[in-house]
Amino acid sequence: MPVALFVLWGLASAFSWVNPYLLPSPGSVYSAFIELVKDGTLFDHVGASLGRAFGGYLAAACFALPMGYFFAKYESLHVQSRLVLESLRMIPPLSLIPLLILWLGIGELAKLTIVLLASFFPIYLNAYSGFKQLDYRYGELAKTLNLNTFEKIRHIEFPGALPAVFTGLRLGFGYSWRALVSAELIAASSGLGYLISDASEMARTDQVFVGILMIAVLGIIGDTLFQRAIRKVAPWSVK
Amino acid sequence: MPVALFVLWGLASAFSWVNPYLLPSPGSVYSAFIELVKDGTLFDHVGASLGRAFGGYLAAACFALPMGYFFAKYESLHVQSRLVLESLRMIPPLSLIPLLILWLGIGELAKLTIVLLASFFPIYLNAYSGFKQLDYRYGELAKTLNLNTFEKIRHIEFPGALPAVFTGLRLGFGYSWRALVSAELIAASSGLGYLISDASEMARTDQVFVGILMIAVLGIIGDTLFQRAIRKVAPWSVK
Amino acid sequence: APDQINIAYVKDPFNLQNIVMKQHQSLEKEFQKDGIKINWVSINSGAQQAQAMAAGSLDVSAVMNTASLLMANGAGNKVLVATGVARPTQVFAVVGKAGQQMKIEDLKGKKVAGPKGTVLHQVLVAALKSKGMSINDVEFIQMDPSKAYAALMGKHVDAALLAASLIIKSNQAGAKTVVTADGLVNPLLVMAVSEKFAKENSALLERIVKVHRQTTKWIYENYDQAIAMGAKEAGVSLQDADKLAKWSHYFDVITDEDLQSLKSDQAFLLENDMMQNKVNTDQLVLPIARQ
Amino acid sequence: MSAVSLRNVSFRYPGHDNWILNNFSLEIKEQKVLAIIGKSGCGKSTLIRLIAGLLQPNEGIITTQSSHQLGMVFQDPRLLPWKTVFENVALPIRNESIEYQKRIVREVLELVGLSHTESYYPSELSGGMAQRAALARALVQSPDILLMDEPFGALDAITRAQIQMDFEKIQQTKKMTVVLITHEVNEAVRLADQVLVLGNTKILDALSVDLPHPRAVTDLHVIQYAANVLNLLTNS
Amino acid sequence: MSAVSLRNVSFRYPGHDNWILNNFSLEIKEQKVLAIIGKSGCGKSTLIRLIAGLLQPNEGIITTQSSHQLGMVFQDPRLLPWKTVFENVALPIRNESIEYQKRIVREVLELVGLSHTESYYPSELSGGMAQRAALARALVQSPDILLMDEPFGALDAITRAQIQMDFEKIQQTKKMTVVLITHEVNEAVRLADQVLVLGNTKILDALSVDLPHPRAVTDLHVIQYAANVLNLLTNS
Ligand SMILES: Nc1ncnc2c1ncn2[C@@H]1O[C@H](COP(=O)(O)OP(=O)(O)OP(=O)(O)O)[C@@H](O)[C@H]1O
Ligand SMILES: Nc1ncnc2c1ncn2[C@@H]1O[C@H](COP(=O)(O)OP(=O)(O)OP(=O)(O)O)[C@@H](O)[C@H]1O
Ligand SMILES: [Mg+2]
Ligand SMILES: [Mg+2]
Questions:
Q1: What is the ipTM of this complex?
Q2: Is E74 close to A151, i.e. CB distance below 8 A?
Q3: Which end of chain D is more exposed for a tag (fewer CB within 10 A), N or C?
Q4: Do D and C share at least 3 CB pairs under 8 Å?
Q5: What is the pLDDT of residue C77?
Q6: Which ligand is nearest to the Cα of residue E154, counting in written order?
Q7: Cβ(C165)–Cβ(C236) under 8 Å?
Q8: d(Cα D154, Cα D163) in Å, to the nearest integer?
Q9: Given a cut of 90, is residue E195 above it in pLDDT?
């Protein structure tokens, strides 16, 4: 299927079915790619974006997983913070950019926060519902085995919630990539998101496509590594 | 907690701890709200946005749920389409706007597509993993009971996957709201997202806040209704 | 004195002075002896520049359009003019759909896409007015230029308000320019500074302005070299770079005429509900900008 | 005629080397009760799952008449947690009219002593109650072939005897083809026309029980047969 | 001295009106085996869960010595699906050294006849094997109080007799306090010092079994006692 799409793209360009100013030919995208690789800027962009996407993602995971766990466990915490969390979940991060600039300035922190806001909720909500749906029978077992909190998480709750947690982590990872364009609207001078919006401003559609394809390719590589890792760590979770 | 935040906001404004240009006072937000209500534009914005958010969301759900189901069932379908789907999942919708305009024009279709792209993946991936993780023992039961495909979905697979599906639907709903700002960057003349970006461009921070708060409030109401509905339809899924 | 200056780097639409100033590290050199660090931050959006100034993250913007500057001031965020940069009359244009050459009159009843409240919008209004029409005679669709460009290429609109490279690209795609800002409005790009910085560090500001003016001079003296630099940075061909530079009309000292166009800009913004409070535009221009 | 026939069936679980059944043949007679006993882990459940078509043999063929309706009681109750007892039990007759469903389900719940728990969810049942509900679900449609994997294992002696008796009666009228896995030698002899002793990969012994129904556990003949079976089991 | 004492305990499940235990008192003697029998659904599992502290009584108090270690065999095997048999069984002694764990776990798996399935996941076990793994998990730490809810229910007669015998031996040396729920009257009489017949909400009858260990099911005294218990059960 990807091959078919690629062929279609080639044909569409070759026979000028579509406007080449909006959908550049594979050839011109390739030469834009080579050009960007040669002058080294592509690596700068990739480097900057990788840092932001992973940084924001890791931060999101670090907040979201414990929150999901504790909120599932102590429903009152969940109820308490529901309004604030749900608001944050619904509010478009793009609209928060001015406030983020106010509080966090125009440096990396604001960009990381945009990524964090984008990827936090799938991780959090999936963890929450994963921990919430745990089979109570294993909870009883934990009690008779005298497991302490940490042991209970390790032996019972985490493995039990893992399928849901894993889905959340995968989703969050995707959203952290997606958020790059928004994040790099804030005073960025490098990064794939910046490349895309800058090139788009200058009608360099070929460069836009290089940016899009890089994001897609890196994202897929990341997702694949991710799935490998989980298969290693928790073979039971992926039948 | 929401109350505490509100009080903090009031105090911050009253004592000018922060720049009112970036964080307007509750009073000025309120009067902007009244102003927008009086001239009736707020209702237009809300109406337009509700239509888009729900339209895109419903479309996303209509595609994502069956896809999640069939891909979980027929792994080869999943493998086949993985590259394309994962690419779409990673690519920032903002960067696709020019292409969407090219193909879908500047009407509602392009906006709905942005909303769809934003909310599709949580629904799809959660449904996929929900259906994938189904207890095989109930599948055996279905076989001995001679359930046909539809009966199997109705009695066994759907209820079994429901907790995961529900989390996906909730997440997707949030993202459909969030996508409004991006969606309404495409040639919109009304909608809360338009209100926010327009007001932000014109330095009308008070109106920006009206827009943000409306999105948050409507989103929370939607989420609450949603949870009520699920509790009615499937009481077993929320213990 | 501060130990660093945060200054916005704005390369679009083809701001050659800024490009050269950064490449030559002129400011870095100027302030090296004082131990002051220059932080370039890339922010293209005028609105975002103003927000960053309000938040204290930005001191100076090398290039800001006057509409953003006026709107910020109208909302109480004091941003002042430090010196002139360009009067890019041909950099802003109304471009028609590929195919026929449209005249302004032909726009009647047509779909025109572009960004509201900007010079481009102003150009459209002025052009229509010059033929006895108003903005209500066209179907105006709010979009930023890169999206308007896409809509024009996809033939979903009849005309688009475009700037700089987008004009060149659309012309190459067969779309014909209907009218430019030339003779209709006087678009102004200026160097802007937050009121706080202007007050507290006027000496530093003077030196920044001085470097900027030296750069402008250098560009006219070493035109080919400057064009090559700009072409590379903006990712356009030498020809296009030359075209863009010619369209831009770089300058430095603000004239009475410029003050007048600031006034008419404000009138336009007020008229279109883009500004709430009128400000005294003369007071927005610092004395150094005029010498 | 055979209701089910297995010919030269071999089976092992994917990823495991050991054969559970090896070149295994068996004819299951129409309208008769076949009891299977054997040590824990010898392959009884695997055999019944092969017959039900839930597993595919690596070699050999298994034939059942396609017109035959199948009922199955798994070794675990396998009730759907999102359905009440009533809804679980009504599942096999889901296409009948509501009135019919109500009547029949109540009848069969009465039989297994669960009348009062119609509206309970499975999580609210005791172990034995869940097992009885599963039995009720299998009986509700009077299947042509009934496969039961230790259907009475979690019941106390009294309840068990009661249900055995009721089942014997039903079988006398309905004449289903039954495969019954059990650990209770008495139960096997009381209910079955033939008792099969299963060992690793093969049948160790078979014994026909030629006694008239209804049989009583206290009947001397039954006791005699039971002693024989226990002997077979012990010596195997 | 009592290992566990229940005083005037009443319990009903939240949202249900019927009392499972009502004003229920019981002393469980240290180092003795108490067998509980009773009809399906009468409240045996509920009682054992109250003793284990998994449920809280609505009224009355339950006291156990806090220093006492608890072992429990649930009515379902309740093995963790993400752990192998070895890992599941080693869970109660997770804080001991690896060498010790290996030694002890292998010993106890040997005892229940699961040596060859150390590395199996629970989904690869037969019903009886899973139950034996659960039993092994409870025995691995030689708890002070051992609560067992039908621990041998899914085993065939031979394996069951074998494990009963082994358990009797262990109990003779370890002298745990044991509560054993069972449906097998013979089993109760063979293993227990006292047999309790539980009915709805209360104890119907109690019987001390004063026979020396080891006991054989074929012993006449045992048969006599078993007949008595069955009588109690039938008449209750
Ligand atoms: N979670 C629950 N919620 C409501 N009622 C319950 C729950 N668990 C058990 N019951 C009810 O309590 C009663 C006693 O159940 P319990 O499991 O104690 O029986 P039992 O004696 O162990 O039976 P069995 O021998 O069948 O296992 C039953 O009527 C059952 O329906
Ligand atoms: N899913 C599986 N994967 C691998 N091995 C399995 C699987 N299921 C069962 N086995 C193995 O197959 C053998 C037979 O299992 P089966 O469940 O048929 O035994 P059984 O005779 O029903 O025993 P029990 O009386 O204990 O229920 C066992 O050794 C078991 O370990
Ligand atoms: Mg079995
Ligand atoms: Mg029980």
A1: 0.88
A2: no
A3: N
A4: no
A5: 81
A6: 2
A7: yes
A8: 12
A9: yes
Residue E173 has pLDDT above 80, yes or no: yes
SS3 C57: coil
Q: Best residue in C44, C65, C112, C142 to probe B by mutation, most B CBs within 10 Å?
A: C142
* C41 Cβ contact list (under 8 Å, min separation 6): A106, A187, A189, C6, C7, C8, C9, C52, C57, C58
Classify each residue of D196-209 as buried b or exposed e, where b means 16 or more C-beta atoms within 10 Å of its C-beta: bbbebbebbbebeb
| B207/chain A closest Cα distance in angstroms | 11
- Residue B155 DSSP one-character state: I
How far does Cα C193 stand from its chain's mean position? Answer: 15
DSSP conformation class of D201: B
- Strands (E) across chain E are located at 2-11, 21-29, 33-38, 59-64, 70-73, 145-149, 177-181, 194-199, 202-208
- Give the domain range for residue D46: 1-68+144-156+175-236
Written as one letter, the residue type at E163 is: I
User: What residue type is assigned to position E114 of the chain?
Assistant: L
Does a structural domain hold residue D108? no
In degrees and rounded to multiples of 5, residue D62 shows phi and psi of -125, 125
Contact A204 C42 (CB under 8 A): no
For residue A21, the model assigns a pLDDT of 66
DSSP state of C254: P
Q: How far apart are CA E223 and CA D23, in angstroms?
A: 43
**d(CA B160, ligand 3 centre) in Å:** 25
How many domains, in total, are found in chain D? Answer: 1
Tokens of A61: 């995971």
> Looking at chain D, which residue has its C-alpha nearest residue B145?
D92
Q: Which atom of ligand 2 is nearest to the CA of D38?
A: 21
Q: How far is C136 from chain A (nearest CA, A)?
A: 28
pLDDT in tens, A44-96: 889 888 999 999 999 999 999 999 999 999 988 888 888 888 888 888 888 88
Residue E234 belongs to some domain of the structure? yes
Q: What is the CATH number of domain B43-237?
A: 1.10.3720.10
Which DSSP string do the residues of B24-92 spell out, in sequence order? --HHHHHHHHHHHHHTSHHHHHHHHHHHHHHHHHHHHHHHHHHHHHHHHH-HHHHHHHHHHHHHHHHS-
Give the tokens for residue E218: 């074929």
Whether the link from the prior residue into D151 is cis, omega within 30° of 0, is no
Are the C-beta atoms of D123 and D104 separated by less than 8 Å?
A: no
Do the Cβ atoms of A208 and B92 come within 8 Å?
no
CB D199 within 8 A of CB D236: yes
CA nearest to C143 within chain B = B187
DSSP structure string for A100-154: HHHHHTTSHHHHHHHHHHHHHHHHHHHHHHHHHT--HHHHHHHHHTT--HHHHII
Ligand number nearest CA of E126 is 2
Q: Residue D86 contacts by C-beta under 8 Å, 6 or more apart in sequence?
A: D105, D109, D118, D119
Residue ranges covered by each domain of chain B: 43-237
Dump pLDDT digits (tens) for B64-100. Answer: 999 999 999 998 888 888 888 888 888 888 888 888 8
The pTM (predicted TM-score) of the whole model is: 0.90
Question: What gap in Å lies between CA D45 and CA D52, rounded to an integer?
Answer: 10
Q: Which residue has its alpha carbon closest to ligand 2 atom 3? A: E124
Residue E88 resides in a domain: no
Residue D4 lies inside a defined structural domain of this protein: yes
* List of residues 6+ apart from B168 with CB closer than 8 A: B64, B68, B122, B123, B124, B125, B126, B127, B130
Chains with 3 or more CB pairs under 8 A to chain D = B, E
Q: Are A110 and A94 in contact (CB under 8 A)?
A: no
The CATH number linked to D59 is 3.40.50.300
Chains C and E in direct contact, meaning 3 or more beta-carbon pairs closer than 8 angstroms? no
Q: Pick from E52, E78, E94: which is nearest to A137 by CB?
A: E78
D70 to B144: CB separation less than 8 angstroms, yes or no = yes
B216 contacts B2 by C-beta, under 8 angstroms: no
